[in-house]
Specification:
Blueprint lengths: L12 H9 L6 E2 L12 E2 L20 H16 L14 E5 L6 H8 L11 H7 L6 H5 L4 H10 L5 E5 L6
Parallel strand pairs: 3-4
Antiparallel strand pairs: 1-2
Helix pairs in contact: 2-6
Length: 171
């Protein structure tokens, strides 16, 4: 069994643990988005994470949560020594709790401009003509199963992979 952490206190299990034992807190004003309209404006954010382990280049177009999970999974894999003593690839699977409720509010506002005159439905004809297209990387940013499949691919695991959407409990 291996362990790894990327937290607001640090980019590795060792750093996080030392800072936690020292009584440090990483709670601070939220900087990742404008939290002014919310009841709480502080959190323990993982700010500008440094990636302690080399990861697959395909992660650059993935959601931030997928990047964090894949990197952490890679660290746990290394900590367990599985890079040196690899089990049969078919015997190794990956399960991940994910939150795929990623919402791009700017895109939602843009799409609402294409409602029908009654305001309830999307005018698909007008949207197709004038709506434009999302950048291709936005598709992969919404795919929760990537949190399980990318780490599995990176370490050569070909057993079952599953991403269970646990909503905000996985955030």
């Amino acid at each position: 069994t291996g362990m790894e952490l990327i937290t607001a206190l640090g980019p590795t299990l060792d750093i996080t643990w030392k800072r936690l034992i020292a009584g440090e807190s990483a709670v601070a004003p939220i900087t990742y988005f404008d939290a002014a309209e919310y009841g709480c404006t502080v959190a323990a954010e993982v700010r500008n994470p440094s990636w302690p382990h080399a990861v697959d280049q395909s992660l650059t177009n993935c959601r931030r949560g997928v990047q964090l999970f894949a990197t952490t999974a890679r660290g746990a894999w290394l900590d367990a020594g599985l890079d040196r003593d690899m089990p049969r690839p078919d015997d190794v699977g990956v399960a991940a709790g994910v939150s795929v409720n990623y919402i791009n509010m700017a895109m939602i506002r843009h799409h609402f401009n294409f409602r029908t005159a009654g305001g309830q439905a999307l005018d698909l004809g007008r949207f197709a003509r004038e709506g434009g297209c999302e950048p291709p990387h936005l598709f992969s940013k919404r795919q929760g199963e990537l949190a399980a499949t990318l780490p599995a691919r990176e370490v050569g695991a070909t057993g079952p992979t599953i991403a269970v959407d646990t909503a905000c409990a996985a955030s």
